[in-house]
Amino acid sequence: MSRPRQADIARLAGVSQPTVSLILGGTAAAMGIAAETQRKVMEAAEQLGYVPDPIATRLAAGQNNLLGLYTFTSTFPTEMSHAYYPFLVGIEEESARQGYDLLMFIASSVTGERPHAQVLNRVRLADGCLFLGRHLPVREMDRLLATDLPVVYIGRHDEFGDRLPYIGADYVSAGAAVVRHLAGLGHERILYVREADEAITSVDRETGFRSGMDECGLAATVVRTDGADLTPDRLRTWRDQGVTAIVTEATDTDAAHRALLSAAEQAGFRFPDDLSLATLGDPGDRAAGLTGFAIPRREMGAAAVRLLTKLIAGDRTAPRQQLMTCALEPGETAASPK
């Protein structure tokens, strides 16, 4: 049996097809169509089992009611789940509240290749697009920003000035707050261990660490590593040199942070008995009471959707670049040095 069309409804109701279109499209009242005519059309539609074509309906309204989500980093592997899942939850919840569906675009980053311009062209199927990922492909994004598609990036990126709207986390202030907390406990030799990555999130965390150390009148020491050289002996050497607290960086893989925890376990160190430990970010073992700060990922995802829908609607009053506060979590892995 063929799918019923508006022409079938028009014949059954004894009206014209344009009249059916106006009534089903919700504009009957504005056109002054009689209530009795509207009733006949709706009854005929129900009798025939008519279901509107969502694509045609959206095209008639001038938009698709679709928000795109493009990730430059693969988001579904297990090791990424902690970092990206809360963002996706916030995006989904707020999209539903705003009356939009989500369309996810798969980047070539899944295979480890650079995203291609052709992939970014496809995001124009949506009314606007959210972008998520630790590293931003500058050339491709520059091309997209030259179009009229509303976009919002989740994460701070200043490569394009005010051309790129974003919702980011204030890692600088949060990093400094962690250092002040450690200094308040009495720590003077604080070591920062981070990955050798120039992602802007890593740059901001280090800036926050150095700012906090300067504020407390302490000398900042930063160690860059992929985790392979974080051995038990190296931890013992740091402690023998007077280091009483170590700060790690949380990333999507937590490579250096996990390596440090492994080395501490092998060395027989306990936090905070032998060393105090804090992290700049939200690693996967936050439930263990780790000292540091919490990233409002879910709230950032929702805020990004709200900003994007405002841009789609033509609202130019909303701040295009926003940083959200990360709350300090004192935790249980930092205490006064012994």
TrEMBL record:
Provide the alphabetized UniProt keywords: DNA-binding, Repressor, Transcription, Transcription regulation
Q: What is this protein called?
A: LacI family DNA-binding transcriptional regulator
Q: Which domain of life is it from?
A: Bacteria
Which terms does the record give in the GO molecular function aspect?
DNA binding
Per UniProt, residues of the HTH lacI-type domain are 4-61
Gene3D superfamilies attached here? 3.40.50.2300, lambda repressor-like DNA-binding domains
